[in-house]
Amino acid sequence: MRATGPLALVEDLGRRGLAGVGVGRSGAADRGALRLANRLLGNPEGAAAVEVLLGGLEVEALADLDVVVTGAPAPVLLDGRPVGSHARTRVAAGSRLTLGVPGTGLRSYLAVRGGLDVPPVLGSASHDVLAGLGRAPLAAGDLLEVGEPAGPLPATHAAPPPGDDGRDVVLRAVLGPHEDRVVDVAPLATGWWEVSERSNRVGARLQGEGLVATDDEQLPSEGTWRGAVQVPPGGEPVLFLADHPVTGGYPVVAVVVDADVDRAAQLRPGQRVRLRWVTA
User: Fold this and answer.
1) Which of 53, 162, 239, 259 is the least crowded, having the fewest Cβ atoms under 10 Å away?
2) What is the pTM assigned to this prediction?
């Protein structure tokens, strides 16, 4: 590892079935991008890869490798030569691969054939930024081991999926169990909300006119989930992402449908978003 950019984490598909003992699932913020990268390499879909925030990653191969970059379409350079993303690239021993800043989106995924061989913590290699579980964020000088390939290389490549092009984003959602705890939940769908710079893998914090609570009564803590839109006392919603807390006591007024949560994980600070109500 030569450089990591703002944040580079090892992520797989997370820790399943441990919420009852206070451990969140975590895993890749954009699960579809991780699955795609692994399919292109013939890996199991949940194999560990590197999640890269806003580019800046530079790695040197110590052996011949097949790699793929998916997610936010970042410029990919091999020894200074553009090679593109969303297609397999052969990296010879001694060569360097660099990811630039993506034009749109937030998180790119660098996967390697065989997957990253990282010791699991509670069944997963993922780093959870809220709980501090898993391998620490990557740093220059780190060495990552690569596992053995699980099968033959597939014949297909993939074109970059259509992204949001940095434009305003509409996410599908259903009303949440506590939608009556705010005076009016409609502004989530009728107005635009700006993604705050304070957003992270825990959640996308949305700035706007604010939602007004119907009363100050404290809710008992209950389980939370990825895609839930929680409203803290300040009135500005938080859309929970991969590393959300296991429980919470603020009203959940909406839930983004699971198929759109990966898009939410690619929202950049300053980008505008609103919800569109759908039936469950």
Assistant:
1) 162
2) 0.95
